[in-house]
Amino acid sequence: MNIVILGAGQVGSSLAEVLANENNDVTVVDIDRLHLQRLQDRLDIRTVFGHASHPDILMQAGLEDADMLIAATQNDETNIVACHLAQLMFRVPTKIARVRGRSYLEHPELFNRAENEKAIDIDLLISPENLVTNYILQLIAYPGSLQVIDFHDGKLRLVAMPAHEDGLLVNKKINTLRNHLPNHIKTRIVAIYRKDEIVMPTGDTVIRTGDEVFFLAEPQHVPAIITELRQRKEKPSRNIMIAGGGNVGFHLAQALEKTHQVKLVDHNMNQAREVAEKLNNTVIIHGDISDKDLLLEENIDEIDLFVAVTNSDEANIISGMLAKKLGVRRVIALVNNQSYVELIQLNGIDVAISADRITTSNLLHHTRQGDTVKAVTLRRGAAEAMEVVAHGSENTSEIIGKTIAEIPWPSDITVGAIIRNDQVIIAHRDLEIEAEDHVVLFLTDPNSTSAVAELFATSKPSWFSWS
């Protein structure tokens, strides 16, 4: 695909790297020459210096030949105007805009031509802040989880959990899992992350202490499976402290305050006041989240979960490590600088999340050929999960009518499950693919996505000919 990205910040750069590595033709536009030069030094991409919403700059970027525009600058208005011009001047097929302002997000009809013919034609509005908020809420729903991903509107869930030494499955083969679960609970362990490597499991693979285990199951069955990996039952996070009253912190508190005891700390007096006016049951504290005395005064040792989501990586890291040292059971920190992530997870912070990684994951399926409806990176890009729809018939598809064992999958792919007419079927060798099945795959090599697209592609039957 020919893709133009506006903005070479964290989100734009992360997208450019992923898309360039998948052999797309990528052009990045930015007003910062240094950012552009750094990208060009390490990636095979084209760069254009200039303002992202100027018509002449968009023309230089080659928008007339683009299949997709991703407007990901820091300015909402720039992104919206650029998408509008992309439609008016170049008829770009797919236009995606990063938008942070709540007012825009609360009025999606302004950007939907299907509902309003006078609307600005944007195919997708994406808010990294909303994505991060929803991601954290999923982690809170499953205490101890490292990553939670939904497929097909939540009918199937992928959960990553650390295996603790007292877990029932630890030091046992995966195929013994069925002995510990009720017959109606079906699951599949699709991958294990062990000592910086992805292990593609078989029934004879032994789970070790410290493994990060990725398993698929229906949402209602997830808690029972987690118990097998963690013998001690993780307590729900009742008392929560949030560091930062920006978009993420505010929306987290708003979502949690009816069912949890929530405290929110912000160093900015005006922002603290604004948040206090909009929240009903959250305790708002003005102060420095890295102040040990403040944390002790607020009974930090009684906090079950500490979530650091300020605009500063450094503040999130320091406050998270301090909170852990002072007795908080679990810490989640927003950290966008990838060079920090491995370091901090060895020093007390349980889960480090990245807004640009989450945003990139939520955009991936829009850049894929074929019928990929979801593509999500796992373990900071070490692996990927995909949901792909099987279209066609036995005459036009290489996979429909064949069992999983008969299909020539790339060696690095595991078929996890199939969703068929709202029914979840855990994959096995003799399971036959039918038309319109949603197939959930796990890949350890992102370069295999093109092979997946070829397998799922449809073609005209051999007897077809033009008359």
TrEMBL record:
InterPro entries: K_uptake_TrkA, NAD(P)-bd_dom_sf, RCK_C, RCK_C_sf, RCK_N, Trk_Ktr_HKT_K-transport
Annotated keywords: Ion transport, NAD, Potassium, Potassium transport, Transport
Organism of derivation: Thiomicrorhabdus xiamenensis
One CC-aspect GO term: plasma membrane
Protein name: Trk system potassium uptake protein TrkA
Segments forming domain RCK C-terminal: 146-231, 373-458
Span of domain RCK N-terminal: 1-115, 237-353
Example of a GO MF term: potassium ion transmembrane transporter activity
